[in-house]
Amino acid sequence: MIKPEFCTSKTLNNISLESNLLFVMIWMHSDDYGTILNSVRRIFGECFPLRNDVTEKQVSKWLNELIDNKLLIPVTHNGNELLVCRSWEEHQKVPNISKRNNIDNDMSSDEIRLKIEELIQSYLESNESLMRQKLLKENDKENDNDKEKDKKEIPTSDEVRSIFLNYVKTLIKEDEIDYDKTNAQLRLFNRYWLGDEDQKGKWILNKKKPNVKSAVKNWIDKNINAYKSFGGSAINNNTELKNLNLNSWDDILKALQDKFLGAGIHIGNLYAALQNSDQKGFYEGKTFNQIYSFALKMSDKFKMKKQENTIPNPKGQKKISEMLGDFGKI
User: Fold this and answer.
1) Residue extents of the structural domains in the chain
2) Is 34 left (phi over 0), alpha (psi -120 to 50) or beta?
3) What's the mean pLDDT in 94-106?
4) Residue 272's pLDDT is what?
């Protein structure tokens, strides 16, 4: 007997019409407890014996749809593979229940019902466990994909360098940028965000997608003076240095004299400071042109104050006088 509730069931209305029809036909061939042997060929033969337009493959598909929606529960009992119509007694009322059944002919009706409920519950718990495992695997796979995606989105050092230098140039005139100091800051930035052999960068450790431009902006904005030259001009713009070929300390002194004579710079003191730094090993491996560029950067520190009676460094003054004669006196 099919009740009117059959037509308004949400579950039944979410499956195909063919599966609905098969579900009703299975009721007709089930025992009085709502069980039937789980055999696609047998169900196909019993439910569609004269239909040439229905295949065994289609019946298998409809059965799987009923099982996926938990309308039929596959169970195993006493070596038999069975299908149980779930909530059988809600759909069918059997007045005179037969002793013949697919569970156990020696059991009472109540025992059979209890056994069926036990089999259904066992299947559902097992199926739920399998579903959880499947979901966990899918989540792990998604996490792995996310990690791989994040990994691919981490910028290269070349990409970071381009963004870094471009942002510096928006804040400072190019002829005022100190590229030595800027490159030093860039190395610190890359070590912090990209990492190196000794430590993982923050972009590697963070799960979020890197916001490179924001990180660069925050880093540079904290101390914009760290990227400027001391003299406010492009000391390492190389325009001036390209025209120089300094091969000795005497060449450096002569270049400083040409550069700063009459500019209010303590040339002797500046030159002495350079040599003092050299004696401490600060310029090891540096060319004389590079040392001269350091002198240009330091020049602001050796400016004379107006109307100042300054006493030049004796060592530097003596060296200048020896080289330049009366012209080199300051």
Assistant:
1) 5-129, 157-227, 241-328
2) left
3) 77
4) 87
**For domain 5-129, which architecture applies?**
Orthogonal Bundle (1.10)
Q: Are 56 and 41 in contact (CB under 8 A)?
A: yes
Contact between residue 186 and residue 161 where contact means Cβ atoms under 8 Å apart: yes
Q: Would you state the pLDDT for residue 57?
A: 94
**Residue linked to tokens 């325009």:** 239
DSSP 8-state secondary structure symbol assigned to residue 305: P
Nearest CA among 36, 27, 42 for reference residue 94: 27
Dump the DSSP string for 24-86. Answer: HHHHHHS-TTSEEE--HHHHHHHH-TT-TT--HHHHHHHHHHHHHTTSEEEEEETTEEEEEET
pTM over cut 0.70: no
State the pLDDT at residue 46. Answer: 92
Phi, psi of 197 (to 5 degrees): -65, -25
Cα torsion 174, 179, 185, 190: sign: positive
Alpha carbon 168 to chain centroid, angstroms: 27
Contact call for residues 69 and 127 (beta carbons, < 8 A):
no
User: How far is residue 194's CA from residue 201's CA, in Å, rounded to a whole number?
Assistant: 4
Angle between helices 157-171 and 212-221 (to 10 degrees): 50
Q: Is the pLDDT of residue 235 over 50?
A: no
Residues in the chain: 330
Q: Where are the alpha helices (DSSP H) in the chain?
A: 5-8, 10-13, 17-29, 40-47, 56-68, 88-91, 109-153, 157-171, 179-193, 202-205, 212-221, 249-260, 267-279, 288-298, 314-324
Contacts of 37 (CB under 8 A, 6+ apart): 80, 81, 82, 83, 102
Phi/psi class of residue 79: alpha, beta or left (left: φ > 0; alpha: ψ in -120 to 50)?
left
For residue 142, pLDDT over 80 is answered with no
Q: Which two tokens stand for residue 42?
A: 């047998």
